[in-house]
Amino acid sequence: MEGSIFKSYRDWLDEQKMPKGKRSALLAGLELFAKNGYDGTSTAQIAETAGISQATIFKYFKTKYDLLIAILSPIIENLIPAYRDDFFAKFDGFNNDLPGLISFVIEDRYNFLKDNADSILILLSQLLINEDVRKLFVKLINDSQSIFAKTVLKTLKSTNAVKDDLDPMEVVRTIVGQLAPFFLQMHFLPYTIEDEQKSLKSIEKIVLNIISK
């Protein structure tokens, strides 16, 4: 990462030094795994979308599974930690301001999900069935606990506005429980949402009503 925060995996990939055929295979794999699922995507489809031969794919990745891991590993090990650190670094600006904090979290995390929709959809699907991906993700969660405690817990406590019977993880689950379905709705059923920003403001109100004293 070299200190840079990229908007998405695609932007990050554009900055990596690698052969054009390898980059094309990774981008095509990202698109098709997100759209059709890992099992629903063949290397022939990836090659056609990438504009390369299957032989070129196998030159850089021994198997389709190796291509999948080559997409997900930098997302879990490099990109998400960088996004996490950049996100948490902004929490100090919301001490004693629960409404401002919730508004920031929902807006920021929704934009992150939208900008990285392909990557997130692949990651979510693989977390359900792929032990290798789960291990990488569990390590990410474990590595994040310290910074979570120093930022999220500290800022939530500073507001003195969260219900006393709610612990911080319940607040996080409340936000995720509202935001994740909305992200999926926007991705798969965008025609069912008339006003994206109005919907996000509605989510903010719902979360605040649930967690505020």
UniProtKB/TrEMBL annotation:
Q: Which UniProt keywords apply?
A: DNA-binding
Q: Pfam families per the record? A: TetR_N (PF00440)
> Can the keyword DNA-binding be found in this entry's annotation?
yes
HTH tetR-type domain residues are 19-79
Top-rank lineage group of the source organism: Bacteria
Where is the DNA-binding region? 42-61
Protein name, per record: TetR/AcrR family transcriptional regulator
